[in-house]
Amino acid sequence: MALRARAVESLGLTKIEPAFWSGRRVLLTGHTGFKGAWAAMWLARMGAQVTGLALPPETDPNLYTMAEVARDAASMMVDIRDLEGIAAVVAKANPEIVLHMAAQPLVRRAITRPVETFEVNILGTVHLLESLRSAPSLLAAVVVTTDKVYENREDKTWFTEAARLGGHEPYGASKAAAEIATGAMAKAYFDGDGAAVATARGGNVIGGGDFSDDRLIPDIIRAVARGCRPALRNPSAIRPWQYVLDCLAGYFCYAQALAAKTTNERSLNFGPAANEVSVASIASSILEALAAKPDWDLDPMQSPHESNTLNVDSTKAREILGWRDHFPGGQGLAATAAWYLAWRRGEDMRAVSLEAIDAYMDAQNTAPDCVSIRKRDG
Question: Which phi and psi (to 5°) does residue 60 adopt?
Fold first, then answer.
């Protein structure tokens, strides 16, 4: 049997530590998607040896192509539902850290294609974890789910990790089921002397390079490009809006802590410290940042399956990991708008994206310590 990965150095691990990731073998699923492409660039920037597992990008344009992310990862185009294909990638990559982001992530697509959604989000996760059982060097695996895993009774609750799992539409339900499956696999096969396996529940992520269908900012970008007013499905809806690099920083810090065994938490929320911001407010702000008129229309195709209010409490992640959002609120929106404006001007989007990552790391390194760090046993 191959030797287990090198020992984790005794670093601070309350921020993203490039020294932790340098030379580290990382398997990143979903690296051709919006968040995954940013993650691949960032990990490679820190010196990680990244293997990406995903399907080809769905949209044109897409961040993976525009930012030349194939330069940052050894890309394996494999369907997450293909158990044999995944097992072959895992065997070849021999990962030390796994970040599982591959998913069917769209609520309205899940409503029209529930079987695909359940297959990808549940069975795909089980396939990956089954393959990781024979990964000799594995230290930690973070399975990314969503803020929509909770049973939402529309009472404006800020959901903690202890809240009841639910899901009143196929997407949320599939991710809640993936949480349960991950917990069962972790207890059965990884606990004890094995690798740490946990889930990360991220908020509603915004940032440059997202061109997905049925997402607020990409829909606005397309409307502005056509010279028309965007249509909003649910203007009064509240969501935990979060800048993409803040969210990814949480995942990275979590993986560091799990690998170093400074936490044994099985799940953590990652969302904004404060959030009472509506869809309409986000739309108006991003339109103004794009130098467009902050007007919108009501989409007649409103979805009755989407929650009106959703908030997640990320206190645990802040206390245990020392993680924080460095680009909250208007700063995240400004960074998002700046990326799309650069794209519209025809700039080199790989350079723009890498500059954004470097700016984030600078913000992390110069920020004062503003949270008390203590370890909680899960």
Answer: -135, 110
